[in-house]
Amino acid sequence: MRDWHRWGSFVGALALTGCGSSVNDSATAVVARSSVVTTGPVATTPGASVEERFGLGPPPMSADDRVEQASGMLRWDLPSGWVERPPTSMRIANFLAGGDEAAECYLTVLPGEAGGLGANVNRWLAQLAQPGLSPAQLDALPRAKLLDRDAVLLEAEGTFTGMSATTSKSGQKLLGLLFVDPDGSAFLKLVGPTETVTREREAFLALAKSMGPSTGESTPGESTSAGAEGTVLSSEGDGATRAERAGGLLAHVPSKWLRVPEKPPRALDLQVEDGVECSVTVLGGEGGGARANIDRWRGQIGLAAMTDDEFKQLERVRMLGADALHVSLTSEAAHGARGILGALCVAPDRSVFVKLTGPADRVAAHATLFRELCRTLEDG
Predict the structure, then answer these.
(1) Which residues pair with 106 in a beta bridge?
(2) What is the C-alpha to C-alpha distance for residues 174 and 168, in angstroms, rounded to an integer?
(3) Cβ(303)–Cβ(329) under 8 Å?
(4) 75 and 38 Cβ atoms separated by less than 8 Å
(5) Can you say whether the dihedral through the CA atoms of 179, 185, 188, 191 is positive or negative?
(6) What is the mean pLDDT of residues 271-295?
(7) Degrees (nearest 5) of the Cα angle 80, 202, 105?
(8) Cβ contacts of residue 275 below 8 Å, gap of 6+?
(9) For residues 288 and 17, what is the distance between their CA atoms, to the nearest angstrom?
(10) What kind and span of H or E run contains 191?
(11) How much is the pLDDT for 100?
């Protein structure tokens, strides 16, 4: 088990010296929302544990629980289009950059110097089949803010092999920030396709600059948001929704469904969970017609076109004040079956298509929320 008391000394020091950054001074143009988790009063008693320093009460029993609580001590501004993932036993903050499944970004905090700056820089370079740096080259590396500290910034490209060295990916780029100190070390690392990482560079630096101790200014689970066409956020908690404006519509979206960059011609793209996505598309005119679009969706998961009788028997639901067609599709594959839920409101002047896709069992699990999204969709 990790030396969490020493880690607490490092994070506690951050709390006592202040966050040093805010939404106003950290590239707000790329910020989609802020994650802030409130903790109790900060303890200043020498030798206080990480739990005591942050008013968390008795320590949890497992290492994974400790990581989850540690992540709750931090706050950050989530860049637009980025997707948060749950923390793991090594990653106290975990993201997909730009919503790209192949571009992972994560924060790791370790006790002590964690092997030293040079060893960690050269280990990352070796993962990209790049030569290590000399002490003079290390000293020449640029700096950027991480957890209100001046951290070393590393950028490199190559073929990424990772820690296991069992697989390799060409055309990869790494962005890394390393803060190494005897009282504790922090590492923020982004690895993915060169195009994605290059595009998300400023977002990465803004994320790092925004990271700091929770200030207790919000209640657990609250966040603020500013989408491309304006976002209004509701209260936190299960069953909560927020309003997302897109394509002239106002969609009441489940609060845990994250907005990601739209893929044209979609007006709204949502990350429901890993591998499950929901989209809203608004087209002028009939958009090709309801039946043609349903048959296209069926073809996407290997189903044949509908018969006339199947089309006539489709369920109708209310959406945008009209009768919309509702479809529930599941591929016939014995394993790895795919599912689609869809609602189509087709009219001569405008057509709206709402679609949820992913593994069949996971799509079915979100059926109630999907129906509610369709039912509450309105002009706005």
Answers:
(1) 94, 189
(2) 14
(3) yes
(4) no
(5) positive
(6) 93
(7) 70
(8) 358, 359, 362
(9) 60
(10) strand 185-193
(11) 87
